[in-house]
Design goal:
The complex is a heterodimer of chains A (about 425) and B (about 450). Chain A has about 425 residues and is α/β, with parallel strands linked by helices. Chain A has 16 helices and eleven strands. In chain A, the strands form three sheets. Chain A has a five-stranded mixed β-sheet. A four-stranded mixed β-sheet of chain A has the order 8-9-7-10. Chain A has a two-stranded antiparallel sheet with strand order 4-5. The longest helix of chain A is centred in the C-terminal third of the chain and has 18 residues, at about 395-415. In chain B, helix 2 (about 20-35) packs across helix 3 (about 40-100) and helix 3 runs antiparallel to helix 14. Chain B has helices spanning about 5-20, 20-35, 40-100, 115-135, 140-165, 170-210, 215-240, 245-305, 310-325, 335-340, 345-360, 360-375, 375-385, 385-420, 425-450. Chains A and B meet through helix 1, helix 3, helix 15 and helix 16 of A and helix 5, helix 6, helix 8, helix 9 and helix 10 of B.
Chain lengths: ~425, ~450
């Protein structure tokens, strides 16, 4: 770097600095900033509905929503960068269920064990588990989510309850219609990890034991889940572009009438019913199948609310978190925007909604991804091994061995 | 107490007194007899002082050495590993952006092979540095070998894209495949590696900041000084001689030792903190900003070469990465972090300049997106390769200047921290020995008078 270029750059920089570069939307000193990702943060969206309820009271500090990127991964990274640097711009954080451990271990969020009683009484137990790490509560369950099976009622009379039946029925219907049998989340990202876990759990396997302290990744269930995916790809049960599909890709394919079955989250239902949707009135929803054909297992999704350690108004932030996650009106406001609430009692009020009714049945069986600090690394590793194995570019047995070795490393690391 | 059987307690007490081991009893009698005479007291004081002084010196020297070792480990190993991983991460992101620019359909600029290969070579060299500094760290070594293996595949894919470029097609589809491998596998591994190395560096700073028995050292030095003063007062009362040269010299040496030691530790801590701040402003903020900028640029370029559906996904990714780079007018994101962590005037000015440059990016991007979506592909590509490329290069240069400044400041800090500790361990030991000799000699002189 020459001196001249450095100096001219500095002069330019100084001129810019002098012209003022203050944050355009600096909140007042008492405003609470709530970090919300993607479309949930949109005006007229669920987060605003909850914030509006809170802001009705003139004595409370106002809550302002900071919109983060819509990709969960980018939300996590953006928050991680800011919290790690000690920025105090965010007070309340919206965390996807598997992030609790990472945020707690890095001391980015404060202990919310004070809320344990009220949260433990009213929220879905699996969500409370997802918000707990190292025996302490770090976040309060805000919204729930679970994988569901979407099926075409005009092609399938009864949704099958076992994966083998689903494959058989799916291939049959797809063959006669000339469409894909199954769409879901097959691209190399977190969604695929979730789909793999549902199969793994459905085969009786798991990653860790209950406390997360021991690896419980048995080879047999893991191989069964992987072999199922690989065979489903070979047999043409999985749509051809399944390996590039995310939630929206799958939804688009199913909505255009291009698939018999779809694995997706509840949000899709509303969009599939929209005016002009080719499948409106021709689809149903059911619990996801298992290998044995009894019961259902789906991955728990949803979000927890945490308070940033850097917040300058922790007490008020905690009050808002308690309000948003345990006030019935706030939770019903979420449901009004098709976001499944985290409070069990909210579902009693939502019986007229078929999705919420199904969720009331599915959520108690839903399982959280382990809320360990290394979750993002583990998820990456699952992606790196499962994706090539099911698309035919890797050996499933080797993938399982490598994965177990990695899981072991994360446990012994701390 | 009243409810206790009195007899039982009494028996217990007398039993302890009776069972005191014989050698101990003899020793305590010996000490009492020794203490009864002045020469005895002088001798005992002499031994106590010498022991105290030597212990202070030994502990002080050990603590200084621990601090020095930890500081050296930061300078020579941990920081190097951490900065090597962020450099690798950054160069990999740059290689991908460079490659993506090279395969824009209809672009006249072509593939900047030199820059691409330099990036890959630099990344490989940084990974080799990280390997050398990560001995015994299985997880890190595992990740590095994965990155290196995937990098070979990636380079081959880019080469294939270049080949089909020569054969007439743009090579855009092959490039998208290569970039997918870079973004979803290589960069994620690099990110995880970088995060781990950065937290190991933080842990090393923590170790340097809290050498063991720090307060014990200071407490012991105070006790020793107190004992020296008491000894001199006692001697003065006894002999009416104001100055005992030996003890005075010992006091001065211990005082000097304590002062030097404290000042050196405070100074080195100050410089350590300073160096950590500059190191963090690169690893936790500016480096992240460079990476986010390059990833955003890659998304921007890939969107132009993609079909309408994946173009939307690339545009969305562009916005997400841009917001990771700078959010809320520079209050958040990596540049927000940089504003917070960059403490030099020069660095802050550069970060503000970067914020301004990023502010202009979305409108430039919207411009080329509109052109692309309206089917004016030639115009969109020209914009991407022209104005947008200049804006991006300017931002990249600003960030590189800021990083260079912070790296220099880090180096200054860590050098100063080591400099402040130079000779401290040896000096502490030497002063302690001098003090011990002085004290011994000083009391020895008085003892001689009794012979």
């Amino acid at each position: 770097m020459t001196n001249v270029s450095r100096r001219s750059l500095l002069l330019a920089a100084a001129a810019l600095a002098a012209s003022g570069c203050r944050s355009r939307t600096d909140p007042g000193p008492r405003d609470l900033v709530w970090a919300v990702g993607g479309i949930d943060a949109a005006p007229g969206g669920p987060a605003n509905a909850v914030a509006d309820l809170w802001n009705r009271s003139p004595v409370r500090p106002r809550v302002r929503i900071a919109a983060l990127p819509s990709s969960a991964d980018e939300q996590r990274r953006t928050m991680a960068i800011e919290l790690n640097a000690g920025l105090d711009g965010l007070d309340v954080l919206t965390l996807d269920v598997p992030w609790t451990g990472e945020f707690a271990a890095n001391r980015w969020i404060v202990d919310l064990s004070g809320l344990r009683r009220v949260v433990g009484r009213g929220s879905i137990p699996a969500l409370v588990r997802s918000a707990t790490w190292g025996g302490r509560l770090w976040a309060a369950p805000f919204s729930a989510n679970a994988g569901l099976l979407y099926y075409r009622t005009d092609l399938v009379a009864q949704p099958p309850t076992s994966w083998p039946d689903l494959v058989r029925v799916g291939l049959q219907a797809a063959g006669s219609e000339g469409i894909a049998a199954f769409v879901g989340q097959g691209a190399q990202y977190e969604g695929m990890v979730v789909q793999f876990l549902e199969l793994l759990w459905g085969a009786g396997g798991d990653l860790f034991n209950e406390t997360g302290g021991r690896v419980d990744f048995g080879a047999a269930p893991a191989l069964r889940a992987l072999a199922f995916l690989a065979e489903a790809r070979r047999s043409g049960f999985l749509a051809r572009d399944f390996p590039t599909m995310t939630e929206e890709g799958a939804r688009a394919a199913f909505q255009s009438g291009g698939a018999v079955f779809m694995r997706n989250w509840p949000y899709a239902q509303r969009l599939l019913l929209e005016r002009g949707s080719p499948v409106a009135g021709r689809f149903g929803i059911a619990p996801l199948p298992t290998f044995a054909g009894t019961g259902t297992v789906s991955a728990l999704g949803g979000q927890n609310l945490a308070v940033s350690r850097n917040s300058r108004n922790r007490a008020a932030a905690m009050q808002f978190v308690e309000f948003a996650s345990t006030d019935l009106a706030a939770q019903l406001a979420l449901a009004g925007h098709a976001v499944p609430p985290a409070m069990t009692s909210a579902y009693a009020e939502l019986r007229s909604d078929p999705v919420m009714q199904l969720l009331e049945r599915v959520l108690p069986e839903a399982r959280p991804r382990p809320p360990v600090p290394q979750w993002s690394a583990i998820s990456d590793e699952i992606q790196q091994h499962v994706f090539p194995a099911y698309t035919g570019h890797g050996d499933p047995a080797r993938a399982v061995d490598d994965l177990r070795a990695f899981l072991q490393l994360t446990v012994s690391d701390g | 107490m009243a409810t206790l059987p009195v007899g039982a307690t009494d028996t217990g007490r007398s039993a302890t007194a009776v069972t005191l081991p014989v050698p101990l009893r003899r020793m305590s009698t010996g000490v009492r007899q020794l203490w009864a005479t002045t020469p005895g007291r002088l001798g005992a004081t002499r031994i106590a002082l010498v022991v105290l002084i030597l212990l202070t010196g030994a502990l002080g020297a050990a603590a200084a050495q621990v601090r020095l070792d930890a500081t050296r480990a930061i300078a020579r190993q941990r920081e190097r590993a951490s900065s090597a991983t962020i450099e690798a991460y950054r160069d990999l992101a740059d290689a991908d952006a460079t490659a993506a620019a090279g395969f824009l359909p209809g672009s006249a600029a072509g593939f900047d092979r030199i820059r691409f290969e330099e990036d890959i070579q630099r990344a490989a060299a940084s990974l080799a540095t990280a390997t050398a500094s990560s001995r015994g760290d299985t997880l890190a070594l595992d990740r590095i070998s994965d990155i290196t293996a995937s990098l070979t595949v990636y380079a081959a894919l880019v080469e294939r894209a270049a080949g089909s470029g020569r054969a007439g097609s743009s090579g855009g589809a092959e490039m998208a495949g290569a970039s997918e491998l870079m973004q979803s596998t290589i960069l994620r591994r690099a990110e995880a590696l970088q995060r781990d190395q950065a937290s190991q560096l933080d842990a090393q700073y923590e170790r340097a900041a809290t050498p063991p028995f720090l307060s014990a050292c200071l407490g012991l030095a105070l006790v020793t000084l107190g004992a020296l003063v008491l000894a001199q007062v006692w001697l003065f009362l006894r002999t009416r001689r104001i100055v005992n040269v030996g003890l005075a010299a010992a006091t001065a040496a211990v005082l000097g030792l304590a002062l030097w030691w404290s000042m050196a530790l405070v100074a080195s801590q100050h410089h350590l903190d300073r160096s950590q701040r500059h190191s963090r402003s690169v690893s936790d903020a500016l480096g992240q900003a460079q990476i986010a900028a390059r990833q955003a640029r890659t998304s921007e370029l890939l969107a132009l070469g993609a079909g309408p559906e994946s173009a939307v996904a690339h545009h969305e990714q562009f916005s997400a990465r841009l917001s990771r780079l700078s959010r809320d007018g520079g209050a958040g994101g990596a540049l927000g972090a940089a504003r917070h962590l960059t403490s030099t005037e020069e660095g802050s000015a550069l970060v503000l300049a970067a914020v301004r440059q990023v502010d202009a990016w979305p409108s430039a991007h919207a411009h080329l997106r509109r052109a692309s979506e309206d089917g004016r592909q030639g115009e969109a590509v020209a914009l991407a390769a022209g104005l947008a490329a200049e804006d991006f290069d300017r931002l990249d240069l600003t960030l590189a200047h800021a990083v260079a400044g912070e790296r220099d400041a880090f180096r200054d800090g860590i050098d100063a921290a080591q400099h402040a500790l130079r000779g401290l361990a040896g000096g502490t030991a030497l002063l302690a020995i001098t003090a011990a000799a002085g004290a011994s000699r000083g009391i020895g002189r008085r003892l001689e008078e009794y012979r």
